[in-house]
Design goal:
- The protein has a 5-stranded mixed beta barrel. A two-stranded antiparallel ribbon has the order 6-7.
- It has 5 helices and 7 strands.
- The chain has a single domain, classed as Gamma-glutamyl cyclotransferase-like (Hypothetical upf0131 protein ytfp, Roll), CATH 3.10.490.10.
- The longest helix is centred in the last third of the chain and has 14 residues.
- By secondary structure, the protein is of the alpha+beta class.
Length: 173
């Protein structure tokens, strides 16, 4: 099989963890970046969940598309499944993304499963900040995850006003 693309919208942007040939800014239509997944492993626990990003239905999402060598497909998809599917809260989908060049590509993306117990739904900035504040999981503090994501989005010139609002509230708690 040929080369393929992976769409990153959260921590994959700043810590992809897999080899790739190139990185392009891209937009995915029909889904938005949302802090809509309770984290029981990476950024929280079942007893004290954190919140992590998911792609949720509606709107669009600007993120990063990684082009991956087709020869590494099994290795990269295996890595992504191990990382993203720890509790099966995401649905692995192949979706159409538009690169900054205007070209469209099919990209592997991880979409929040609305039927899963970890789906948090639409939270207010205050509700999200309250969940994030103080949560810790195997990958570290939830506040660090949120701050790093906002910082890296800024570096790419990507604005996510809602996520920025949550980060401001977390900083003031």
């Amino acid at each position: 099989m040929g080369d393929f693309w992976v769409f990153g919208y959260g921590s994959l942007i700043w810590r992809p963890g897999f080899p790739h040939l190139e990185t392009r800014r891209a937009r995915l239509f029909g889904y938005r970046r949302s802090l809509c997944v309770y984290s029981f492993v990476h950024r929280g626990t079942r007893e004290r969940p954190g919140l992590v990003l998911g792609l949720d239905r509606g709107g669009s999402c600007v993120g990063v598309a990684f082009k991956v060598d087709g020869a590494a497909r099994e290795e990269v998809i295996g890595y992504l499944r191990e990382r993203e599917q720890v509790t099966s809260v995401y649905l692995e989908k192949t979706l159409t993304a538009r690169l900054e060049t205007g070209e469209t590509v099919e990209a592997v993306a991880y979409v929040a499963d609305r039927a899963h117990e970890q789906y948090a739904g639409a939270l207010s900035e205050t509700e999200a900040a309250t969940v994030v504040q103080g949560a810790v999981g195997q990958s570290g503090r939830n506040e660090e995850y949120l701050a790093s994501t906002v910082e890296h989005l800024h570096k790419l010139g990507i604005r996510d006003h809602w996520l920025e609002g949550v980060a401001k509230q977390v900083a003031h708690l």
